[in-house]
Every structure is written in C-alpha cells, then in structure tokens.
Amino acid sequence: LDFTKESAQEEYTKSLQKLQNLYDIDSFKFDAGEVNWLPAFGSFANPSCQQMTTDKTTLVTTPALHSYLYSQLAYRIDATNRLLEVRVGYRTQTLPIFVRVIDKDSNWSYVNGLRSLLPSVFNLSLLGYPFVLPDMVGGNGYGVTITQTRLPERELYIRWLQ
Q1: Range of the domain at 153
Q2: CA–CA distance from 154 to each of 24, 82, 132, 151, 161 (Å)?
Q3: Are residues 66 and 86 in the same domain?
Q4: Among 5, 75, 94, 122, which is 20 to 30 Å from 131 by CA?
Q5: Of the candidates 100, 125, 152, which is a domain's last residue?
Q6: pLDDT (tens digit per residue) in 48-61
C-alpha cells in the first residue's frame, strides 16, 4: 500500500477498525513499514517523497516518508489503549507508541544476540524514543526450515526475560 496516498490510509484504517469491532481486538502489532519492503522501482502519490540531490541537479525519491506515515497511521488506529507497537520509528519520537528493536537471534552474542539487546535499547532511547521494547523473549530461533527452528537454551531464555 502507498501510505503517502490519503485514500490508501483511509481504506487500510477502515479495514483494521472493522476487524477490531468484529473480533473485539484491542490493538495491533505493526510489523514491516521499512523502506526495504517497498518495490524497487515504486512511485508515490505524494510528491514530498522526492527531494533534490545535494548538487541540485537531480530529483530523487526519498521513501523515508512512507515509514513515517506508516507509524502515524498505527498511532491513529489505537487512539484509546495505546498498546500498539511499530518496527519503524522514523521521526516519530513524539508519538506515544512502542518502537520495537529489530529481530534478535537466539544466542548470547554481541552480534545480534542477547548481548546486543541493551545497547540497541539504549541507542533508541538516546535518539529520543521513550517506549522501546525487544521482540520476542529468547530471540527468533530461526532455522532455514521450520524443522531447523530451535528453542533457545533455558539459561538464555531466563536471562532474556530478566
């Protein structure tokens, strides 16, 4: 969806509100929203996604606005409970929403494991995001296939909870 289009935002909002009413849903988890999920050669309805290059010779598309609008939309959908989370937080420090740290692996490592969690949270806090949360406790445990997915070791899981 092109969230730079007002009509796309309205249609998406109505669909989610319909689900909320039909199934008594309190809130949503807004995964994605990052620019890497956008089509490589996409175009946007809103011209503010474009800017001049620093040498003032070329007009280039700047898709970061898409992530901003995605977070704004998430904020508007949950106006009462404020239980929602987003995975993008581009210029949304003023919104009372949870910004989730990117997925972590199920290991002890500083390389995207448990030891990288606190530095990630502190970094987002220093950047002005007051409500930061990790993804699932214990990391993802991803394997190449579903049968290779593994649970984290017990000690890792307990430390992650702490």
Answers
A1: 102-161
A2: 35, 32, 25, 9, 11
A3: yes
A4: 5
A5: 100
A6: 666 656 666 766 66
